[in-house]
Inverse folding.
């Protein structure tokens, strides 16, 4: 049972303190509760109220201390359990917070705030299905709970249920029109839906309400960049970084804009902020020192280890040759799907599959830091291709499997991994390529994964042959690509593989491309033999397909 409230005149003082907290006068409420706690130090109700107001003021340590004391006196308080969990999350003690919230819900199953807080904890642990259930429980308990509508929307957004997410953010705003977090999330959802002008309006409104809202600034720059308003984005990054110079996501995303416009001198340095992003995995930890080009490498053994995507590794593993030319012994740790292909790279390298024991080495460098280590600017990109090679035996096997060639062969990649953060922007539905597939050419899918909607479309496109079961790793992909007269690909790892082979490769790019392709160029210094076909406007794949048809007719007659 809860301890009895103070009686007499103290009841009026308690009511006054409660009113102060309810009306947002937090400092005054804290003073009022503290006065009462000094008179009644063993009253758990007062301690819970005092701890709660400290949390709302941002005094996490003091709030946690007071709430812990309250729970010692009265362990079965749902409010105290739920509120202390909020502090524990901020201290990085998510598992303890989850346990407290589950205890609170055992005591009071309809505790809306506890369901909402547990949903937040679970979402932070990437347990989105469980989080979704608790946000829904919070709304069953309190349908007018704007924060829970907003939080449920964020889970739906991560699940790519865009229409539902947008509806939830709007429901939160109908309940609380000046809810800056919901406006920010609505802007993100609209951006993911390609509704950039509406997204900017929502983000601008969030910033009117909260000018120092760094995440809204950040998302606004992403929208500006999607519209290729690059100068505005760069200027905005500078303003936002003045508010929070240590914001890892801001710093990293500014590096991508700098690299996109060719400012490699600043871009590669700022790219190192990737390790300080909110969702970034920790960098690999070795006893040997990190090497970023600051000392001579001759006579030393350098470990180059993977990070990020397979296409990134293919693009940047070329630097192993530069390290060897400077006298280093190079150990290349490669992701399993790339091991056989990377072993074809010319040079005396030791290639180790990621996860296998590593040989001795003196220093190490993540593969995406090599451009910084070698001081790369646009003019000094090591663009010599080929640097990877298709295995002759695998090529012969593909030749036999494909049979006699009666038409020009075109390798086709129209979609990448659905897990890629920018997949909605870079992949194309197979149906859109119908005018291309109508040409008198022999088409071969170079991608291993076929999405359900594309699998249904394949039934109409008999001229497109798939080889999903035969593509074991990228050595197989490389050998199949080498048997093509041309490879056409969206921005995926297969495009990097084909271009690194020196195969004629046409790469289809979104209006706002990945940083590596620079701005406005029909070719790339990273792969001089590749041709870039860019969207002329946001989302306009139709124009890309029309241009592709014209180019294929001109190329093959």
């Amino acid at each position: 049972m809860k301890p009895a409230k103070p009686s007499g005149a103290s009841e009026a003082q308690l009511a006054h303190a409660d009113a102060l907290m309810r009306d947002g006068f937090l400092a005054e409420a804290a003073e009022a509760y503290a006065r009462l706690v000094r008179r009644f130090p063993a009253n758990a109700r007062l301690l819970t109220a005092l701890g709660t107001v400290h949390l709302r003021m941002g005094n996490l340590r003091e709030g946690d201390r007071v709430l812990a004391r309250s729970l010692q006196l009265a362990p079965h308080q749902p409010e105290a359990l739920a509120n202390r969990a909020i502090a524990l999350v901020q201290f990085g003690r998510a598992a303890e917070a989850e346990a407290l919230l589950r205890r609170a819900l055992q005591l009071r199953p309809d505790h809306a705030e506890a369901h909402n807080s547990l949903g937040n904890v679970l979402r932070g642990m990437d347990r989105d299905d469980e989080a979704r259930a608790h946000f829904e429980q919070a709304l069953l308990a309190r349908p007018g709970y704007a924060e829970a509508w907003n939080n449920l929307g964020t889970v739906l957004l991560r699940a790519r249920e865009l229409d539902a997410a947008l509806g939830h953010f709007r429901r939160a705003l109908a309940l609380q029109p000046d809810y800056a977090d919901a406006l920010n999330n609505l802007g993100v959802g609209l951006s993911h839906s390609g509704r950039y002008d509406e997204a900017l309006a929502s983000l601008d409104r969030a910033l009117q309400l909260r000018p120092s809202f760094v995440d809204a600034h950040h998302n606004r720059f992403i929208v500006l960049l999607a519209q290729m308003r690059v100068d505005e984005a760069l200027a905005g990054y500078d303003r936002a970084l003045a508010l929070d110079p240590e914001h890892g996501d801001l710093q990293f995303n500014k590096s991508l804009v700098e690299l996109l416009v060719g400012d490699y001198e600043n871009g590669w340095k700022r790219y190192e902020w990737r390790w300080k992003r909110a969702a970034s995995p920790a960098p690999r930890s070795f006893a040997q020192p990190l090497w970023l080009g600051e000392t001579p490498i001759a006579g030393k053994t350098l470990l180059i280890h993977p990070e990020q995507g397979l296409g990134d590794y293919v693009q940047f593993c070329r630097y192993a040759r530069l390290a060897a030319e400077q006298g280093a012994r190079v150990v290349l740790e490669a992701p399993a799907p790339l091991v056989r292909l990377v072993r074809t790279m010319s040079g005396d390298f030791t290639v180790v599959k990621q996860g296998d024991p590593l040989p001795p080495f003196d220093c190490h460098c993540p593969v995406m830091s090599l451009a910084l280590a070698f001081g790369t600017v646009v003019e000094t990109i090591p663009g010599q291709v080929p640097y990877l090679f298709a295995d002759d035996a695998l090529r012969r096997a593909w030749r036999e499997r494909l049979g006699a060639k009666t038409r020009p062969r075109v390798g086709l990649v129209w979609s990448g991994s659905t897990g890629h953060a920018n997949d909605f922007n870079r992949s194309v539905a197979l149906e859109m390529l119908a005018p291309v597939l109508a040409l008198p050419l022999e088409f071969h899918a170079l991608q291993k994964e076929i999405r359900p909607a594309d699998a249904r479309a394949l039934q109409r496109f008999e001229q497109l042959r798939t080889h999903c079961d035969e593509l074991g790793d990228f050595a197989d992909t490389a050998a199949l690509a080498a048997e093509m007269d041309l490879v056409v690909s969206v921005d995926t790892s297969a495009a990097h593989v084909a271009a690194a082979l020196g195969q004629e490769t046409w790469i289809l790019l979104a209006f706002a491309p990945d940083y590596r392709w620079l701005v406005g160029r029909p070719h790339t210094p990273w792969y001089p033999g590749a041709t870039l076909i860019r969207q002329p406007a946001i989302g306009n794949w139709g124009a890309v397909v029309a241009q592709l048809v014209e180019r294929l007719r001109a190329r093959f007659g």
